[in-house]
């Protein structure tokens, strides 16, 4: 039996696909922009076909795992809601439709769940029995793995980005969720409002250099993300919080405030403090997670 998996990480900005072996090693990969002007099957399946053919052709994979940026119905095998994908794509992304295209079992997975599996089996989560993975990027996503199994129900769970953390703002019709206040998108919005022209790495550099205006923007945004993480800690009680994503991988600038919030407002008197650790696999966490997805959902 073949020992490789075709894994896909579908995002609102780019589509990535890779052939991954069962030890989580990426054998080959391809990447293309997510085309918002074309239909999903044409562009998406073209990328998958290219990687499939490079990786040995039809029948060369044990399974195909497709990570998608939204809420997944795991029973029906379909994407329910994905605000960052082009309109019309949601209806095309189903296990049944994709399964007709490949001579291998197809699994549809929430992208944060898939990345959590990658970090749990092959990355920063290996020392821990129970972990929550949080990606702080353009948006905020989360997934959890307990005793090697992804935490899920009928639908993908741990959707911390959409949880409400500011009641007064909600009632006033203003941004009020963890994602709206604590993501990379929120950081850019807050910076513009504060007259800070920089974004991305340039903004982080100003924070590291001690610039007061940039530091205030950063602190507000990370505090909002941290509140969402604290809520997850109360609900899920993990051994560790693994933080990834473009904004999340900024070391102490992220970990220290989140750790303080957990100490001040997180679960009381745990037998071991919840550790906050950096993701090890970067953008590849979801791709690598495909190698262990069947284990994590109890099918292998």
Can you lay out the helices and strands and say which pair or pack?
Elements: E1 4-10, E2 14-21, E3 26-33, H1 40-54, E4 63-68, E5 71-73, E6 78-81, H2 89-92, H3 95-99, E7 106-110, H4 111-122, E8 130-136, E9 140-146, E10 149-150, H5 167-171, H6 178-182, H7 184-193, H8 200-208, H9 212-236, E11 240-244, H10 252-265, E12 275-278, H11 285-289, H12 293-296
Parallel strand pairs: 1-4, 4-7, 8-11, 11-12
Antiparallel strand pairs: 1-2, 2-3, 5-6, 8-9, 9-10
Helix pairs in contact: 7-9, 8-9, 9-10
Overview of the structural elements:
This protein is an alpha/beta fold. The protein has two domains: 4-115 and 284-296, 2-Layer Sandwich (Nucleotidyltransferase, domain 5); 127-279, ATPase, nucleotide binding domain (Nucleotidyltransferase, domain 5, 2-Layer Sandwich). Helices cover 38% and strands 22% of the residues. Strands 3-2-1-4-7 form a five-stranded mixed β-sheet. It has a five-stranded mixed β-sheet with strand order 10-9-8-11-12, sandwiched between helices. Strand 9 (140-146) and strand 10 form a beta hairpin. The longest helix has 25 residues, at 212-236.
Q: How big a fraction of the residues is strand?
A: 15-25%
Helix coverage percent:
25-40%
User: What characterizes the major β-sheet?
Assistant: 5 strands, mixed
Give the radius of gyration.
19 Å
By CATH, the architecture of the largest domain is named 2-Layer Sandwich
| H/E series | EEEHEEEHHEHEEEHHHHHEHEHH
